[in-house]
Amino acid sequence: MKTLHIKNTLTKLSFLIVIFIMAVLLNTAPVKGANSQAVHYEQPDINKQLISTTIHTSIIVSVDGTQRIYSVPIGNVSDVLKYLQITLSSDDVINAKLTDEVYPGQHLIIDRVTFSIYPEHKEIPYETVIQETDKLFVGEEKILPGKKGSKEYIYENKYINGELISRKCLKKEVLTYPTDRIILKGNKNITIVNDTYSPTSSILIKTKKDTKDFHLNKIKLSEKDRDLLERIVTGEFGGSYIGACLIAQSIKCAIVYDGYTSIEDVIRGMGYVGRTDIGKSQNAINAVKFIFDDNGLAVKHRLFYMCTEDYYNNKPNNFHSTQNFILQYKNVLFFDRW
């Protein structure tokens, strides 16, 4: 049995030796066109590929708040990122081209770029506008409240590695327009009740300052006083029935409250300057009749003084400015005493 085992072993060794000699002969066969003594040890292409994929190099990568050293296969930046399973968005920034070949010790820095779009709403303040209205008397006010508007801004924020770098307005639009705050100031001086003569009328105009129970005692005129009164009323405001009635009532107030006994005394004492030599208007005749004979009222308030609007505005600190303003009819202002 021992002899048989030795024999088998020798047979195997002989076979291996034959295989080795054949391999040597194949590798040392001359190449066509080359020196017969040259020996070639060219490796198959597949072996070269295997060798190149196994070559690594060390690089540094900074991304997502960390910095690490990696051993990566030789290749371009894009291949290395795939190898490291690092993805880039279309907005991210890297300090190398993706087609560049990596080199030992290279430091790749990746900045993550993100954007956020959001709206902001801002108020649009309202303005205050002053308007006159004949729905209110002079001195009265009414306030119509304003309402703020709203404007929408669409902003885009840019972040690099989570840090805000820039802010840009993409769009702005008015959602609601503001409504003005309006202060209505009354310019209505009077409300006309009747502007023609009627013996049944009790009052011609209303004002804000009307005195509810105001009245004047009836005064009987002499023919002389009537004639002069009609003339002075014509000279002062004879072109208007209401204006004539206001003058006639002012003269009557002077007689009632100041004790004048004649129209001539009133003209002189109160400073009337209207002409008395130009005849008498029908408006003046009707006004005297209404105020004195019918005991009507132009307005439910005392009247003593009057002046034109131009005079009042162009004479600062004039006497009339110290008195109690009651009403304005056309261009004439009428006053009571304080």
Q: Which class best fits the helix and strand makeup? A: alpha+beta
**Overall 3D geometry?**
rod-shaped
Sheet with the most strands, sense and barrel status: 4 strands, mixed
The helix fraction, in percent, is 25-40%
Radius of gyration: 57 Å
Strand content: 25-35%
The poorly predicted ranges are: 1-16, 18-53
Give a count of the beta strands, DSSP E runs of length 2 or more: 15
Give the total of domains: 3
Task: Output the strand order for the largest sheet.
Answer: 2-1-4-3
Order of helices and strands: HHEEHEEEEEEEEEEHHHHEHEE
Distance between the termini: 159 Å
What is the average of the pLDDT values?
87
DSSP summary: helix tally: 8
Write up what this structure looks like:
The chain has about 350 residues and is of the alpha+beta class. It is about 30% helix and about 30% strand. It folds into 3 domains: about 55-110, Roll (Ubiquitin-like (UB roll)), CATH 3.10.20.30; about 115-185, Resuscitation-promoting factor rpfb fold; about 190-335, no CATH class. The chain is built from 8 helices and 15 strands. Helix 4 packs across helix 5, helix 4 crosses helix 7 and helix 5 (about 240-260) packs across helix 7. The termini are far apart.
